[in-house]
Amino acid sequence: MTELLIALAVLAFLAIFAVGQYNKLIKLNVAVDESFAQIEVQLKRRADLIPNLVETVKGYATHESATFEKVVQARAAATTATTVPDVAAADGMLTQALRGLLAVAENYPDLKASANFLSLQEELATTENKVGFARQFYNENVRALNTAVATIPSNLFAGIAKVGEREFYEVDDPQDRKAPKVNF
């Protein structure tokens, strides 16, 4: 009888342990999905600011159409990307295009003094900070998930939970790693 109770206790412990590991992996996977969604929310916020910024700059710098076109194209690519590498690449293109737009703005003192432009620059700077924090949060969650998937004992349950390693959010171009420079 005692042996049966010990065997049942061991089986109960193993079942609870397995469920715990499974749930841990599922929670980590959901956290990665959620943190990637936060990156997309911040990139959407940035994309929503861009038309206002472009229109404000257009009013002062009508002959800079190539710069405006690059921003519009980069914004379109950023709003349609879905995978981590595609979103990172589109994010980098948009950052480069914004850098060009803000460089154009430097040549127009009246524009730089415009309250609307200053407000948009401040919103863009705030959004860039939020994008950076969202990227960092995503990568922290990916690190936690990848560590769990690669280490014992949770790696024994990764297949059962249908959870695998995920890609980090990386920016390929070192220039894209910097937030657009905003001068007042």
Structure, explained:
This protein is mainly alpha-helical and 184 residues long. It has a domain at 37-142 and 171-177: LemA-like domain (de novo design (two linked rop proteins)). Helices cover 78% and strands 0% of the residues. The protein contains six helices and no strands. The protein is rod-shaped, with a radius of gyration of 24 Å. It starts with a helix and ends in a 23-residue tail after the last helix. The mean pLDDT is 87.
Number of strands: 0
**H/E element sequence:** HHHHHH
Distance between the termini: 81 Å
Q: How would you characterize the largest beta sheet?
A: none
User: Treating each run of at least 4 consecutive H or I residues as one helix, how many helices?
Assistant: 6
Question: What is the rounded Rg?
Answer: 24 Å
CATH class of one domain: Mainly Alpha
Q: Which regions are unreliable across 5 or more consecutive residues at pLDDT < 50?
A: none
Q: Superfamily at the CATH H level of one domain?
A: LemA-like domain
Which percent band covers the strand fraction? Answer: under 5%
- Helix/strand class: mainly alpha
Helical content band:
over 70%
Shape: rod-shaped
Oligomer type: single chain
Concise summary:
By secondary structure, this protein is mainly alpha-helical.
Which features would summarize this protein structure in a list?
single chain, mainly alpha, rod-shaped, 184 residues, de novo design (two linked rop proteins), 6 helices
